[in-house]
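PT: before anyone asks, these are the final sequences, not the draft ones from last week. 471 residues across everything. Please model them as a single complex and drop the result in this thread when it's through.
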Amino acid sequence: MIKFHNTLTNEIEPFTPLKAGEVSLYTCGPTVYHYAHIGNFRTFVFEDLLRRFLESCGLKVKHVMNITDVDDKTIAGARREQKTLREYTSFYTQAFLDDMRALNILPPVLQPHATNEIPAMIRLIEDLAAKGIAYRAEDGSVYYRVSKFEEYGKLSKKKLDGNIAGARVDNDEYEKEEGADFVLWKAAKEGEPSWDSPWGRGRPGWHIECSAMCMRHLGETVDIHAGGEDLVFPHHENEIAQSEAVTGKPFARYWLHAKHLLVNGEKMSKSKGNFFTLRDLFEKGYDAMVIRYALMSVHYRQQLNFTFESLKEAREVIEKLDNCYFQCLSRLQIGCRGTDGQLQLRQAVRDIGESLSEDLNIASALAILQKIVTEINAHLAQLSSASLRECIGFFEHMDRIFGLDVASVKEIPPDVLGVLAEYAEARKIRDFSKSDALRKEIGEKKWFVKDGRPGEPSTVKKMRRAWDIKK
Ligand SMILES: [Zn+2]
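LR: through. Structure below.
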């Protein structure tokens, strides 16, 4: 049974999708006004693990992630760089998609851009106005009257008369009439992009964007809505208020939130010099999968302290996985002599699935993975071709769940195998100058040679591709 922690109830609950066999998943996408930082990517990697795990359970996941390409920050950024909003946001949208691909994050089934969905936002505001919840203020902007929605605060557990008064968010500043009334439609300001609406020209507020896009593409009730913990209030609280006031139905059945990360024990900030984008880490020579592992390996509801030490540990694990996979592949292709194979791979797959079923218990799942890899390593020489094939299938399956891209090279090319055979021959007759030259030749083809222990074959391993994303 799959269980997730639901922020709405603050409990770990059994998860069943509304429609059998199919999960609707909405995750709040980036606001494309800068390069996303590793704190953002912790959330995106967690959501990717969530989706991969659900898919590994045989569920079809309809995943929608929006792109916020109009809000206060994007408009300010475009103005600063003297670009049109579209020019400015399409640059950072592309950068985001490149980063996602580098981290092996599965692309959403749909990725709506807010600026392409304005009519749906206007319709939703009209529905709210018809119910007397949205009102037009003197400044021409339209606001949500929070006091009209009794359940306001149910996600963040904030009380309207207590905590909310005076609350403000950085992302989309909001002005208020009563307590925490938030803006749905902002009246056009000189020099800002704007669209026609029944209330005059203007642009949507940030919160209405997600409500409209989520419901338009996934229906009035979505199975899972996820994001970073900083979105609980006001963004997700407001999404609930906007959507449920109109439909009278639950907007999202399960709310999953990832804790943000610390870097060297402190909140990331540019002034402290501990602020990193993915590109910063690539520049320092870290592999994308090492970064992915470091971001993924701490449970999503626990504080992740990101350090260079944690990257070093992640690198060791990735190397261990790579080494084991390529040992299996090399031995299979060279022609192994083993006859046995008593590995508990199926049991490991089941145990990993069970761990992840418990609110994505990643620590336990990765521990099982490491243990079985140690076991495979210990038995390599005895493994028959069938067992080696089974190991390769196991790594492929693990890639589908963890996305660490271990088993993406399916075959050692014949030319590499050919040189490897010559290499083994040269070593056998102790012609070391020849074997050195052949090792180099293999290196030029972007493969490493690993010498076998006495009686064991030498094997090869593919070098991981270097990520060279321009800054
Ligand atoms: Zn959102």
